[in-house]
Each structure stands twice: as C-alpha cells, then as structure tokens.
Amino acid sequence: MSDLPPANDIRALLEDSPHIDDAGFSDRVVRVLPRRRPAMASSYAIVPAVTVLACALAYGGRTLGGGHPPAAQGAHHALSLLMTTSFLGVALALLLVAMGAMLTAEE
Amino acid sequence: MPLTDADLVARVLARGDDGHAFAELVRRNQSIVRSLLRKLTSGNHALADDLAQETFLRAYRGIGGYAGKARFSTWLCQIAYHAFLAEADRARPRVLHDAADDAAPPQAPDARPILRHDLERAFAHLTPAERDALALTFGQDMTHEDAARILGCPLGTLKTNVARGIAKLESRMRSSWGPSGATPRAAGQ
Fold first, then answer.
1. CA B168 – CA B174 distance, rounded (Å)
2. Is B112 within 8 Å of A33 when comparing Cβ atoms?
3. Which chain A residue has the Cα nearest residue B16?
4. CA–CA separation, A43 vs B160, rounded Å?
5. How far apart are CA B54 and CA B67, in angstroms?
6. What does pLDDT average to in each consecutive run of 10 residues of chain B (189 residues)?
C-alpha cells in the first residue's frame, strides 16, 4: 500500500495548482464593482489653504490686539511668530504633497 | 516593461480608478484565489466562485489598507480566507460541500484532473485546521510564515497540521484509488 506512482503523490498534486481559466469571471467581478467617486483635484488644496488662512487671522488678531506690557508683548510676539512659522511650514509641506499627488494623478 | 501588481494598486488608489487597473489585478489573481477557495470548500466550485467574487469586492473597497509589505496575492488570499470563514459561520450547520459537486467530472484522457477533483473532495474529511493549513500552504506560492500569520497560529502548529492533513489525504486517496493509483473506473473495467 505504499507506492502510489510519483504522479499521484499527494504533495505533488497539492503543489501542482493548474491555472484556472478565467471564463468570464473577471468581467463578472468588474461589473459588480461599486463606482468610485473621482478624486477632486481642488480638495487637495483645501486643508493647506484653510491652515494658512487660520494662521494669518490668528497672527493678525494678536498683533492688532496689543494691550500688554512691552516685555510681555515682545515675548508674546516672539512666541506667536514661532508658532505661525511652524504652522506655515506644515502648510507648505501639505501643499507640496497635494501638488505631488495632483501631478501623479494627471500622469 | 509590464506593470507589477503594486503599480496597478497605486493606479487604483491615485486615479479613483477607471476600472481598468483593478480589472487587470482580478485577471492576474483570479486563478490563485479561486484555487484556494476550491480547496477550502472541498471542491464546491460554485460556492468558491461566489466567495472569490466577494473577495475581490472586499479587496476593491479596502485597497487603501494594502500596505504593500506582502505580495498582493497573499493579501488577497487573506481576504479570501476570511470570506470563507464568514460564509462557514453563516452556513453552519448547513454543509459547505455541495452534493451536486459529488458527481465525478467527465472522463478525461489524463487522470490528473480527476485526481485533483477527488483531492478537493477529500478536503472535506480533514479538520478545519488541517484543511486551512493545506489550502494556504500548497499551490498558493505562499511562505509557511505568511500562511501561519493569516491563520493566526504558530509556525510549528501549522507544520503539524500540514503533516497530519497530508497523512489523512494520502490514506483517503489510497482507499478510493487503490495502491497502484489506478482509477476506480479503470480498475472496474
């Protein structure tokens, strides 16, 4: 009971996975795929634009508001400048990423 | 230079897909997914194709989650396996193995297709752990590590289940085909 021919060896049979003919399977799958909403190029720019606007408003409001003692006001302005610069840096990075994505999508 | 699966995935993600890139992914991987599911369903080809369709639908919806660490086909096999488990849960205690598929396939000049059919049916006599281990380890071009990760079991357990499964299949096939490997029909003639 120990000698099935090599062609009938279970391991070989398991390993030998013949290509299954497509026979219209792929077309049936593609027909039932849900439609994807096309990516809007303008949506890539919304986040950076809103960030820049918010930074500008925040910085403008602080500068015009005033009312603090000169030393405290100086420190406050320095801190605001630092934060604004950081925000602008992030916004610029996001903008570059968005532009890259748009260029890739248009290829 | 032909596009790789990873290139096609990137196209599906970047373009919102016009359908062509994903269709090509389906065409390239349908055989491996359907073959896996035929083994898991013990040769129920109709159910295997339904589950394969479900697999590609899930893959399409969740393609953003493909990290690119494993091959795309391995990722698809993981989805297929989970689709099969979900179906098995839904169908319990209904048997997944369809009696209609018990009929022997038409006589072919080459015995291997008949052998394969019998082998798929013999999967019904394995435990789920043995069946899953064999289905994922053979013919899917997948490493044992990947198969163990998909099944959520240690590598040693997977290897044990593979060895046990093969021993059972061998015993089953020998009893139905005889020691010489002659077909029952041929032997009866």
1. 10
2. no
3. A38
4. 53
5. 20
6. 84 74 93 92 92 95 86 93 90 55 47 74 90 88 89 94 91 70 41
Distance from CA of B167 to the nearest CA of A (A): 9
Q: Is A10 within 8 Å of B134 (Cβ atoms)?
A: no
What pLDDT does B79 receive?
A: 95
Specify whether the CB–CB gap between B141 and A14 falls below 8 A: no
Of B14, B180, B181, the CB nearest to A105: B14
Query: Which of A17-21, A39-43, B185-189 comes out lowest in average pLDDT?
Result: B185-189
Cβ distance B179 to A3 under 8 Å?
A: yes
User: C-alpha dihedral over B36, B70, B90, B123, to 10 degrees?
Assistant: 30
Model confidence at A66, pLDDT cuts 50, 70, 90, reads low
Residues in chain B: 189
- In angstroms, the separation between the Cα of residue A83 and the nearest Cα of chain B is 33
Q: Give the integer Cα–Cα distance in Å for B38 and B47.
A: 8
Q: Are B76 and B32 in contact (CB under 8 A)?
A: yes
In this structure, what token pair is assigned to residue B129? 């752990």
> B48, B137, B145: which is closest to A14 by C-alpha?
B137
